[in-house]
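Why do we bother with a discrete structure alphabet at all? Because it lets us treat a fold like text: something you can write down, compare, and reason about line by line. To make this less abstract, here is a complete entry for Toprim-like. Read it the way you would read a sentence in a foreign language you are learning: slowly, and without expecting to understand everything at once.
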Amino acid sequence: MNIRQINDELAITDFLAGQGFQPARKNGLDWWYVSPIRAPERTPSFKVNIRLNRWYDHGTGEGGKVFDLAMRLHRTASIREIIQLLASYSFSSPSTAFHSVRAQESFGHSKSPARETDSPTTIRVLEAKPLEAGSPLAAYLQHRGISIETANSYCHEVSFSIGERQYEAVGFANRSGGYELRNSWFKGSSSPKDITFIDKGTDTICLLEGFMDFLSLLELRPHLSHTSSFLVLNSLSQLGKSLEVLAQHKKVLLFLDQDQPGRRATERLLRSEPNSRDVSSFYRSHKDVNAYLMARKGRAKQLRLGLGHR
């Protein structure tokens, strides 16, 4: 499958649903979302036209097709990885809103409103079980710098389906029963999308964007597992849901990403939450905590190899 086929066959609304994003409102052919590519907003300004199958973000002036959106959401992934991600969705069913509109137009009913139907690309969780040492998922975590011992307390091996196809991924549960799902080529989430609050009963809480950063922080600073609670957003679009939890703690430590949306969210919290403190200086030259951990472990490996050749 190539990029043109992906853009022609995959509805943007289905891709967003598979990533855990649902429309805030529907206005005819225009579905409006809280922007998935920017810091959280009060008024949804990310529009998807289900007839054209095009998206437009009024906050940034960006727009395009589904492949453009996937590249924007997964900026660290290669083009090959994006193609693998999008090709994992099943395109066999014509029941999506995008294809429904196409069918209506083919029979001369272009003015009829699109009906909301079940998405063939919805992620359905089949089973969750403990991670196994030596498995491909354990190897994936090790590549990310995370030990199976660290991950086992918070993650599962999750079997899930997209259409008729079945996959496995590292699963990280949120407070509403949905899962963030990661493997070497896939990044998505099952519904419902929500934050993850790991309550240790402490006055201090660490705020992170994703669970890979959370696990990386435990690798770097294992003592925090005993002295701090944790709140993982699972997406910056969930930041608004975190404010009530953050307000219950005397000290909020911010470990957000170093990209523009992450820095904007950090600055917003520093202004609005007097008990918050930005503690990201140690990974300032990297995108996030996990990128710093991987770079640090990579340097350590190079040093060991260098010493071994002396």
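What the structure line is telling us, in plain words: The chain has twelve helices and 15 strands. Residues 3-106 form a domain with the DNA Primase; Chain A fold (CATH 3.90.580.10).
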